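Review session, final week

We close the course with one last complete record, chosen because it touches almost every idea we covered. It is UDP-N-acetylmuramoylalanine--D-glutamate ligase, a protein from Buchnera aphidicola with 440 residues. Go through it on your own first, then we will talk.
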Amino acid sequence: MVYNYFGKKILILGIGLTGISCIHFFLKQGIKPKIIDESKNPIFFIKIPKNIEYSLGSLEHKWILESDLIIISPGISSFRPILIQARSLGIEIISDIELFVREISSPIIAITGTNGKSTVATMITKIAKNSGCNALLGGNIGYPVLNLLDKNTDLYIIELSSFQLENTFNLKAKIAVILNIHKDHINRYPKGFEQYKKTKLSIYHKADICIMNAYDKLNDIFYKNNQHYISFGKKDSDYYIKKNNASFLFYHKNKKILNSSELLLSGYHNYHNVLVSIAIADAMKFSRKYTIHTLKNFSNLPHRFQTIQSKNGIDWINDSKSTNVNSTQVALDSVTKKKGTIHLLLGGDSKSGDFNALKIYFNKKKIKIYCFGKDGIKISRICKKKSIYVEDLKKAMTLISTRVKSGDTVLLSPGCSSLDQFTNFEERGNLFVKLTKEIT
């Protein structure tokens, strides 16, 4: 189907990377959209072309109810009253992903999940390229998908958040993957976790091949349809991991593929990512030889359980990408080798996450917790004996520098969004790296 946007009143919500890519998408077609941002000083304001009408400071604007088509950036909730009203009037509200999928003919690998999306999407892109496939990576990883349209490709690898999936209706992936579903962004969804989960599950609706985490029991929901399903995780799944002394073995249908000792990556969460990447690569019929070679040489992406410094017997680990409770649990599971104290940096905007789930870790481990940011005081009350509230990350690191000893681990795994004090998790992680280098 060919979509024609001429003659329509088009409005873009959000002047971020996504919003700017949407402006250029329409300008190339000779169409001038309008744009709104809630911030009075959006970071990317200088990137708006001079001939574009804009409004800053509030979403409550008459343009919304006068529009024919609204493209909403993922940072703006679809459940705002004025947007609900717009839908009731028949105004179409879509994501940039929806615009993108209407334009393309090359196949898509679509990847979502609460944690691990960027790592798996990057792994698969490298495997594809090493296999001779001209693959392009975009989406939630930080590169808007509309910017990929001018480039030739054999395959798109798209990382998707639940926010992007909320307003995407015609995604038809060759392979759709949900890595995991844990409680996150509960404050975003009026109906809570089930609504968040349903949004994630929409990635499977028109997919040719669905790759599913057996531990999330997604199979039970979707096996009724006629799509092709591949499972991973449990022992009876198509792909699974088995403990073998000090290492882990990767299997496909009872046939060993790989030993974790051959990888640069460490931590069970990373082994999970490797397992899923093998499943995706096999489904794409990429040579197993290139898949294994790529995975053996793959190292952590920045801000994802990244060891910044191992000096004087102290490990400093940057896991700033940890923006939910489950990701902090995963990080704590991975810090098991040392007998010293874990100095855990926790805090930011909790997004209504339940930090009581961390109590079992706090009780078992030798740990000191430094809670900072918007919800730092609230989080510190969960384990008062081991927690201290500090205003911000810098003050926490200053305090840690006076306490840390050989054998200890300093772990930034905040379990929260960074937007209360930082532009994004990268800025938070970069500050941690800077402070670590100053201290060591």
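Two points worth writing down before the exam:
The mean pLDDT is 94.
Residues 103-296 form a domain with the UDP-N-acetylmuramoyl-L-alanine:D-glutamate ligase fold (CATH 3.40.1190.10).
Good luck, everyone.
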